[in-house]
Amino acid sequence: MSSRSERSAGKRKATARDPGTAAAQLAQYAGDPDFMASLARGLAVLSTFSEHPKGMSGSQISQRTALSRASVRRCLATLAKLGYASQDGQLFRLTPKVLNLSQAYLSSESLATVAQPHLNRLRDQIHESCSLGVMEGDEVLYLARAETQRIISISLRVGSRLPAYCTSMGRILLADLPPAALDAYLARTALVGRTWRTVTTVKQLREKLAAVRRLGYSRTDQELELGLRSIAVPVNVPGQGVVAALNIGAPAARVSASDLIGCALPRLQTAARQIVAEVR
Q1: pLDDT in tens, the chain (280 residues)
Q2: d(Cα 108, Cα 214) in Å, to the nearest integer?
Q3: How many angstroms separate the CA atoms of 72 and 58, rounded?
Q4: Which residues contact 126 (CB under 8 A, 6 or more apart)?
Q5: Which fold, 109-279?
Q6: How many C-beta atoms lie closer than 10 Å to residue 246's C-beta?
Q7: Which residues contact residue 165 at a Cβ distance below 8 angstroms, ignoring those fewer than 6 apart?
Q8: Cβ(204)–Cβ(178) under 8 Å?
Q9: Where are the beta strands (DSSP E) in 61-102?
């Protein structure tokens, strides 16, 4: 697939047949007496705001989820009445109350709790930003982060999501997928060129993932954004497998690719082992 066609695929409008849309998920579980369709619609509407923090209109959400405008309107009205969303003209935004929905998870998630002091220590040692991420759907979800200065235009924080195929943590997690799951991911994912250095063919990505399995770490060089280099290692818990990835991101102008491997990688591997020792 050419870069142009991949970009077009990545920007296509959602349809009810797209497997990732709420409408497709509703169809998948139609007839299941234990599946609450109204709750699924509400969660789908909530999830669309993750990439649009400045707000979205009902019609935009309808396009993203492939839900009817009437269903989206009722979901937004309910969220607004319960205090989880606010409305400004045609735009809806989430309110701080939605943090209550994640607080219970973050408070009880031992992995993120255990990892945070190790991330803080690693950041202070190498003076670069460090993160812990897991695979959520087809993206990397940030569970913990220790940041120095912001080095890319994307604002990363706990709860942020990034594509798996062009990030160091994502490739760690993709490399650990069973073959059938990886095949399915590659079949449904448009490998959009984020920069001119991004790997955008399935063949190239498979080669990168094979190298990750062989070397035990993943390094990306300005594939997500120009000026950003990153290296990641798995958090491999005995009996559970690779439960997360741990990474260091650094500006290309300050940190060479060889520095990432020679200096950052050993510290990253040590931090991963320390985290594993505490969560076992």
Answers
A1: 333 433 334 344 556 555 556 666 777 777 788 888 888 888 888 888 876 767 889 999 988 888 899 999 999 999 999 988 898 888 998 887 876 776 555 554 578 889 999 999 999 999 999 999 999 889 999 989 998 865 555 677 888 889 999 999 999 999 999 999 999 999 999 999 999 999 999 999 999 999 999 999 999 999 999 999 999 999 998 888 899 999 999 999 888 988 899 999 999 999 999 999 988 6
A2: 34
A3: 6
A4: 248, 263, 264, 267
A5: Beta-Lactamase (3.30.450)
A6: 27
A7: 171, 174, 189, 191, 199, 205
A8: no
A9: 85-88, 91-94
Are 67 and 73 in contact by the 8 Å Cβ rule? The answer is no
- The helix (H) or strand (E) run that includes residue 57 is strand 56-57
Instruction: Name the residue among 170, 113, 108 with its Cα closest to residue 139.
Output: 170
Query: DSSP H helical segments within the chain, as ranges?
Result: 3-10, 22-28, 37-48, 58-65, 69-81, 99-108, 110-126, 168-175, 179-188, 202-215, 257-259, 265-279
Q: Give the other-Cβ count within 10 Å of 161's Cβ.
A: 17
CA–CA gap between residue 243 and residue 254 (Å, rounded): 31
Inter-helix orientation angle 69-81/37-48, to 10°: 80
The structural domains of the chain, with segments of one domain joined by +, span 3-97, 109-279
The domain 3-97 is placed in CATH, from the list 1.10.730.10, 1.10.10.10, 3.30.230.10, 2.170.120.12, at 1.10.10.10
165 touches 199 (CB < 8 A): yes
Which structure tokens are listed for 73?
């309107």
